[in-house]
């Protein structure tokens, strides 16, 4: 029987597990969280009990290294002191590690009280905690709507939802093939209706360009922005807040794919028609291959699970996946990142929060002919070399200085020296 290991228990990983089981494989599912579902299905773990009862389910399991199809795992809570190393060598490996929030830097974004949209929603949905009493939600993309709805649901006063892209860009992107994506359109209408009932305004073509405060965020300065996100002078408005939620789309988490040797295209894992990567026996699904939301992720996971089990995906699965990918392309067209966003920055604006590297530091280093290239820039400024390893600032640094790099890190996730020094791994 084919043994398939799936890393990630979000929509893509769970769909991969379901279809690999249907194809007759022996399945092991790993996830860092203590419950399945990922960000999208947070708080709905009960929905997957029947599925995971048919698998080997490893919650609180961190994959800290990958060598081809060999998977090195630490089992136990991330903050625990008794994690044990395990090694898996499956016949096929499906990577469904998802994505995290993308946030563009702006003056004051490092202040306490400034949250990523995903963190705010995780606290609201998972813990029933509002990040603040008076909250502003801003950035780009449809994810802002459910975040605002979740905050309203836990009692926050949401002062507004600000989409940086102008109405023309958003509506052109969503109008194409809208009839073919009735489910998504219905979902958006539901979110918008909830916000309308609570008198939460939704404004397009407006962005947060500065956060102000001393010990924490107290004010957010917004402005009208053009299609390229350049600021329209004289349109600034200040909100008194105690929390700010920002998100400018999502960034894939390809560290394990890079460690496995998978080829990338534009930061995403390159896959074939059956979600197969450039490495034999390794498949990828979901946001790793392109940001498209839960429906696209599940459709790709279904194809990957079937193929990883050694079966040829049927036409219906492939058509469903292709349909979802088409929607993802329209989503990207409706909510692009404007090229002029660096105009929001000042010389002293922090870009890399871990190393406190400023915009001025980056510009000086990038202009130094003695240190050409992104690798030298990182070494000279420390940008991207802090605890988050560039997960928060990597794309911003690349946009500002050119040349994004994805290095193979033998250790993909933090591991204690004592854990690393264990004499052997358990099979």
From TrEMBL:
Per its record, how is this protein called by name? Pyridine nucleotide-disulfide oxidoreductase
Q: Which domain of life is it from?
A: Bacteria
Transmembrane helix keyword on record: no
Signal sequence range = none
**Annotated keywords:** Oxidoreductase
Q: Name residues in a coiled coil.
A: none
Could you read off the lineage of the organism from its UniProt record?
Bacteria, Bacillati, Actinomycetota, Actinomycetes, Pseudonocardiales
**Keyword Cell wall biogenesis/degradation attached:** no
Q: Where is the FAD/NAD(P)-binding domain?
A: 3-299
């Amino acid at each position: 029987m084919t043994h398939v290991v799936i890393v990630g228990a979000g929509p893509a990983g769970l769909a991969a597990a379901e279809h690999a089981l249907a194809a007759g494989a022996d399945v092991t599912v790993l996830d860092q969280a203590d419950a399945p579902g990922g960000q999208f299905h947070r708080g709905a773990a009960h929905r997957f009990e029947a599925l995971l009862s048919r698998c080997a389910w490893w919650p609180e399991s961190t994959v800290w290294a990958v060598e081809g199809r060999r998977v090195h795992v630490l089992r136990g809570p991330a903050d625990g002191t008794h994690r044990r190393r395990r090694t898996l060598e499956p016949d096929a490996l499906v990577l469904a590690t998802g994505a995290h929030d993308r946030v563009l830097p702006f003056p004051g974004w490092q202040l306490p009280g400034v949250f990523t949209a995903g963190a705010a929603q995780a606290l609201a949905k998972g813990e029933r905690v509002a990040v603040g009493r008076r909250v502003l939600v801003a950035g780009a993309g449809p994810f802002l709507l459910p975040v605002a709805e979740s905050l309203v649901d836990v009692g926050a006063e949401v002062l507004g939802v600000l989409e940086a892209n102008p109405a023309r860009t958003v509506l052109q992107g969503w109008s194409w093939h809208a009839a073919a994506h009735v489910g998504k359109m219905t979902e958006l209408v539901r979110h918008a209706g909830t916000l309308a009932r609570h008198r939460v305004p939704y404004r397009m073509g407006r962005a947060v360009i500065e956060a102000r405060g001393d010990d924490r965020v107290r004010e957010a300065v917004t402005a009208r922005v053009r299609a390229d996100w350049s600021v329209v002078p004289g349109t600034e408005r200040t909100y008194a807040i105690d929390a700010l939620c920002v998100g400018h789309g999502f960034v894939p988490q390809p560290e394990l794919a890079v460690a496995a040797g998978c080829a990338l295209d534009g930061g995403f894992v390159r896959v074939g028609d059956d979600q197969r990567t450039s490495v034999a026996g390794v498949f990828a699904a979901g946001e790793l291959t392109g940001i498209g939301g839960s429906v696209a992720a599940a459709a790709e996971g279904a194809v990957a699970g079937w193929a990883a089990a050694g079966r040829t995906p049927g036409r219906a699965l492939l058509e469903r996946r292709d349909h979802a990918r088409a929607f993802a392309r329209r989503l990207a067209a409706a909510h692009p990142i404007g090229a002029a966003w660096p105009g929001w920055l000042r010389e002293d604006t922090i870009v890399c929060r871990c190393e406190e590297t400023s915009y001025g530091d980056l510009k000086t280093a990038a202009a130094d002919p003695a240190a050409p290239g992104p690798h030298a820039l990182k070494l000279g400024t420390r940008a991207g070399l802090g605890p988050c390893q560039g997960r928060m600032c990597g794309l911003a640094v690349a946009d500002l200085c050119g040349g994004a790099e994805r290095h193979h890190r033998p250790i993909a996730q933090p591991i204690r020296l004592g854990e690393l020094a264990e004499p052997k791994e358990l099979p």
